[in-house]
Amino acid sequence: MKVLSLKLRDDVFKETEAMVKMLKCPRNAYINDALRFYNKANDRKALRVKLQRASRAVASSSMEFLGEMGELYDAPRDK
C-alpha cells in the first residue's frame, strides 16, 4: 500500500465528505473505489480508440475482400 498526499479543491472535498458520511465508508476506501472506477473507464476509452484505429487501418482491405467474395458468389457455377 502506498501513502499519498494530495490537494483537493474545497468543493470536491466537501462532496466527498458528504458521500462518505452518507455511505458510511472510510474516505480511503471511497477514494480507492473512485480511482479504480476512473482507471477502468479510461482503460475502456483507450481500448475503444485503439480498436477504431485498427478498424480504419483494415477497412479498405476488408471492403476489397468482401467485393471479391461477392464476385465469386455471383459468378456462374458449373453444373
Question: If you had to describe this structure to a student in words, what would you say it looks like?
Answer:
This protein is mostly helical and 79 residues long. It has one domain (10-74). Helix content is 78%, strand content 0%. It has helices spanning 10-23, 27-74. The longest helix is centred in the middle third of the chain and has 48 residues, at 27-74. The protein is rod-shaped. The model has no long low-confidence stretch (mean pLDDT 90).
What does this entry show, briefly?
With 79 residues, the protein is mainly alpha-helical. The protein has helices at 10-23, 27-74.
Q: What's the Cα radius of gyration?
A: 26 Å
Content-based structural category: mainly alpha
Gap from first CA to last CA = 73 Å
Overall, the morphology is rod-shaped
> Which regions contain 5 or more consecutive residues with pLDDT less than 50?
none
Mean pLDDT: 90
Number of domains: 1
Q: Portion of residues in helices?
A: over 70%
| Extended strand count | 0
User: Order of SSEs, N→C?
Assistant: HH
Q: Biggest sheet: strands, sense, closure?
A: none
Strand portion? under 5%
Alpha plus pi helix count: 2
Quaternary structure annotation: single chain
Layout of strands and helices, then pairs:
Layout: H1 10-23, H2 27-74
